[in-house]
Amino acid sequence: MSGVLAFASAVTVEPPLCAADSDEALMAQIAAGDEQAFERLLSRHLDRIHHYLGRLTGHWAECDDLAQETFIKVWLKARSFRPGRVRVTTWLHRIAHNVAVDFLRKAGRATRAEAGERARDEAGPDALGQQAEERQRLHEALSALPENQRSAILLRHQQGLSNPETAAVLGTSVRAVESLLSRGRRRLRALMDQPGNVRGRERIS
Amino acid sequence: MKYNNEPPANRQAERLDELLVEPHAAPPTLARRIVHALPSQSRWQRILDWLLPADRESRLWRPAAVALLPLALGFALGFGSGTQDEDPLYDDVLVLAFSDDYFATNGGYGDE
């Protein structure tokens, strides 16, 4: 008898991992207007999306607004999400990517050069040391990359999406993503090797 | 230290990966700010969202179904009105029509 009770308690204490907590289930609840489900999805993905937006645009000051715009679109478009066709993370990144690209288009090409300077200013005088300097060089090198190469590198290497998922976010083929990644990484390394030249190149271009 | 025996290119690539995946946290108040900024969806907006969804399949059949609703209503009303043969007024109308015809052909009432 005690064995049966122990078994029953074990079953009830540790419920099986159900799909009710998955991103897809949360999206279904959000589509029905559930704010709590939205908050849970937000807490899961806000940091990643915020990071992606910041790195892609280089405008960390506007990043909060862009993240807000992204998640409000998620709330409004939740009904259009079709589970099974695409993962929630891919869908979220696609919305974030479109918001960032719209922002960059509105801001204009000139701001890309400013982004490198702004990143340097935001690092501040306290950000000393080799690691901070490396981080700064990465910021500047990323800002100098073309937008599609930068997006591909960030989605694949920073956000951890697969090549097909990256292709889905960028609306291109897997082969094109592989090419973007290859060229982007090569150029990024070259730019990081020449830290003094990054801003100079920006001024020229 | 673990990079010492590796070629410089590999070391650079690994360092680049490390820098790219550095952890990042959004401002702690941002989540609350986003939740407060959520717009409330009106009933009309919900109807429009249902009527014109993003996916192609539903975008085709839903407006078509809504457009066919008046036609279906017309059919329903049309077929429904055809079953009123047992209306008592119908007999009265027949009698009156017959009477008019009778009096017209016989020159009116016999008393006149």
Question: Can you describe what's shown?
Answer:
The complex is a heterodimer of chains A (205) and B (112). Helix content of chain A is 76%, strand content 0%. With 205 residues, chain A is an all-alpha fold. The termini of chain A are far apart. Chain B is rod-shaped and about 125 Å long.
Helix content percent band of chain A: over 70%
The number of helical elements of chain A comes to: 11
Mean pLDDT of chain B: 75
> Which consecutive residue ranges of chain B, at least 5 long each, have pLDDT under 50?
none
Helix coverage percent of chain B: 55-70%
The separation of the N and C termini of chain B measures 132 Å
pLDDT below 50 for ≥5 consecutive residues: which ranges of chain A?
1-18, 197-205
What is the radius of gyration of chain B computed over CA atoms, rounded to a whole number of angstroms?
40 Å
Strand-residue proportion of chain B: under 5%
Radius of gyration of chain A: 21 Å
Average pLDDT, all residues of chain A: 79
> What is the string of helix and strand elements of chain A?
HHHHHHHHHHH
Please outline the major beta sheet of chain A: none
Helix/strand class of chain B: mainly alpha
Taken in chain order, the helices and strands of chain B follow as HHHHH
Largest interface: A-B, 35 and 28 residues
Span of the ends, CA to CA of chain A: 79 Å
Strand content of chain A: under 5%
Multimeric state: heterodimer
What structural class do helix, strand and pairing data of chain A support? mainly alpha
* Annotation, overall tally of beta strands of chain B: 0
